[in-house]
């Protein structure tokens, strides 16, 4: 057997083995929890929205990966099938246009964009839909550089109470997260967060909830959700809002109804009843209105 025949035989054995190894690695990596969640910073059922968001994210990646594989296969096929042959001379046959092909590669991407838009819009509408009668309503007030939480009287809250947030002090060393301002939410109860800012643009972000909304001075944004998993989650401001933006941190504790009631009772016992409204803003709306009248 010639050396060329031995090389060809060895290559014929290596290629299938390498292909099987790659397919096996891809299949095994698909079994990890991180892979199933699309490497998002959340469990599937942290809130009533997270499963839908994860499904949209993962299915979108699967779809574009399939499209990518087909595209790469066609590119490789064209390179091999229409490569310059030995002994060929001059230019190959030149084609100025191909109308069916041009219609195909115009309509297919357009169809894909519309499909992605449809599913994204459906999910976004679901996330942004407000609840007319939420079990708990909380007025969240962002300020440089912390958050105040007003638990407003309503279905599950008998009397309005509040907690005052203070800025975290970071010095590059590990710190006690329990000292951060903490937003308490009862598990499996619908919650509306009314997001306001006391002076500049901030952004309310809890990565585990897979949702983030801006907090604008003079405008209220809303976040409606039902937390479905007990636990403590990190929260932070996601909008560069000044010198100590990085220290604008908070916790979210999803607790049982009894623990939630106990927290409200503790705030009441401290005398923190009522609300920390816009009169504590740096530029209260009333002050702005008075200024504009002058």
TrEMBL record:
GO annotation, cellular component aspect: membrane
Q: How does it sit in the membrane?
A: Multi-pass membrane protein
The record's Gene Ontology biological-process terms are: ATP synthesis coupled electron transport
Residue stretches spanning the membrane:
57-82, 103-120
Q: Where is this region: Disordered?
A: 273-294
Q: Where in the cell is it found?
A: Membrane
Pfam families, alphabetically? COX2
Residue stretches making up the Cytochrome oxidase subunit II copper A binding domain: 133-266
Q: Keyword set for this entry?
A: Copper, Electron transport, Membrane, Metal-binding, Respiratory chain, Translocase, Transmembrane, Transmembrane helix, Transport
Q: What is its EC number?
A: 7.1.1.9
Catalytically driven reaction(s): 4 Fe(II)-[cytochrome c] + O2 + 8 H(+)(in) = 4 Fe(III)-[cytochrome c] + 2 H2O + 4 H(+)(out)
Going by the record, the broad EC class of this enzyme is translocase
* Gene Ontology MF, one: oxidoreductase activity
**Entry-linked InterPro entries:** CcO_II, CcO_II-like_C, Copper_CuA, Cupredoxin, Cyt_c_oxidase_su2, Cyt_c_oxidase_su2_TM_sf
User: What NCBIfam families does the annotation carry?
Assistant: CoxB
Q: Which family does it belong to?
A: Belongs to the cytochrome c oxidase subunit 2 family.
Q: List the PANTHER family.
A: CYTOCHROME C OXIDASE SUBUNIT 2, CYTOCHROME C OXIDASE, SUBUNIT II
Question: Could you tell me what this protein does?
Answer: Subunits I and II form the functional core of the enzyme complex. Electrons originating in cytochrome c are transferred via heme a and Cu(A) to the binuclear center formed by heme a3 and Cu(B).
List the protein's name: cytochrome-c oxidase
Species this chain originates from: Arthrobacter alpinus
């Amino acid at each position: 057997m010639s050396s060329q025949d031995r090389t060809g035989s060895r290559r014929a054995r290596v290629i299938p083995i390498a292909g099987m190894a790659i397919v096996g690695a891809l299949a095994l990596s698909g079994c990890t929890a991180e892979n199933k969640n699309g490497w998002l910073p959340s469990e599937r059922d942290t809130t009533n929205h997270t499963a839908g968001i994860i499904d949209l994210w993962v299915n979108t990646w699967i779809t574009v990966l399939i499209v990518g594989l087909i595209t790469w296969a066609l590119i490789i096929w064209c390179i091999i099938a229409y490569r310059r042959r030995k002994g060929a001379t001059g230019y190959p046959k030149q084609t100025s246009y191909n109308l069916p092909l041009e219609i195909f590669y115009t309509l297919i991407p357009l169809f894909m964009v519309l499909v992605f838009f449809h599913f994204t819009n459906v999910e976004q509408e679901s996330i942004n839909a407000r609840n007319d009668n939420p079990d708990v309503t909380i007025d969240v007030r962002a300020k440089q550089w912390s958050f105040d939480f007003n638990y407003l009287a309503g279905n599950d809250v008998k009397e309005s109470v509040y907690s005052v947030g203070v800025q975290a002090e970071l010095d590059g060393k590990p710190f006690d997260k329990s000292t951060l301002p903490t937003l308490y939410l009862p598990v499996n109860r619908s919650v509306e967060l009314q997001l306001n800012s006391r002076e500049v643009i901030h952004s309310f972000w809890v990565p585990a909830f897979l949702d983030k909304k801006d907090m604008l001075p003079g405008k209220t944004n809303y976040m409606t959700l039902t937390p479905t998993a007990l636990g403590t989650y990190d929260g932070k401001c996601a909008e560069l809002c000044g010198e100590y933006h990085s220290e604008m941190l908070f916790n979210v504790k999803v607790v049982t109804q009894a623990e939630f009631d106990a927290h409200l009772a503790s705030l009441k016992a401290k005398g923190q009843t009522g609300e920390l409204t816009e009169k504590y803003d740096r530029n209260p709306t009333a002050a702005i209105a008075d200024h504009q009248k002058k």
